[in-house]
Amino acid sequence: MEQGARYLTISEAARILGVSPSSLRNWEKIGLITPVRSQGRYRLYSREALNQAKRVQYLRKVKRLNPHSILHVLQVKDGSARTPRARVRESERIGTRLSRLRRQNKITLTETARKAGISPSFLSAIERGQANPSVATFQKLAQLYHTNVLSFFGSEASAHRLVRPRERKVLEPHLGVRIEQLAMGQPMMEAQLWTIAPGANSGGSYHHEGEEFIYVLKGSLELWLDEVERYLVEEGDSLYFESTHAHRWKNLGKTPAVLLWINTPPTF
After folding, report:
1. Which of 19, 37, 68, 205 is such that its CA lies 20 to 30 A from the CA of 139?
2. pLDDT tens, 98-122?
3. How far apart are CA 186 and CA 249, in angstroms?
4. Which domains does the chain have, with CATH numbers?
């Protein structure tokens, strides 16, 4: 679990939503919501998971959709056509790679969790494919393992100059964040198309070597540097900053934020 975050038990979440715990278990089985697991393997609901459950409840009660129709609506809204089973398989693959990298670097679970600013139980859940880390956590783990985030998602595609939309490698670190690679291979400048859903955020601050440039194509994004400088970048705005500044971000708007985001050297 993320350090400092508030998690609800399945009974607490069910009471807030006005549904039965069995309904939440069914929604999880279908792939509508994804709680994390504690070290004792109990289901725990983050604020993000609770908000997702509220969306499901709205579509069920107000729009009168059945569970599988709700799943289709959520996949379209999040810009992903992947099935729940595919999402689970990817989480398991990422977890296996993270576990292998940690062992290769000869770092214990407890030490890694402390340096990444998360709990050992949450890191264990990530390595088992039962929890999805935030962008900030991915970045911190990449630094600890002396690699980049892209390596967690599998091998890179071969380099070629022209990249069609259908050929882009797509990363979905966690719910509400979609990252499309706009260049193949190992370029010195990493160009990505980010789509950030309303309310989605980085999951905390992170920093690394390099420089970053953001151009807002649609929507808006709040970004903080070193917890001192606050920027609200809107459609048509651009922002440059050195990546050594601790930075965190969140979509405060009611529509997805679509950004051209460039890093050099590559961090993803």
Report:
1. 37
2. 999 999 999 999 999 999 988 898 8
3. 26
4. 8-74 (1.10.1660.10), 84-151 (1.10.260.40), 156-264 (2.60.120.10)
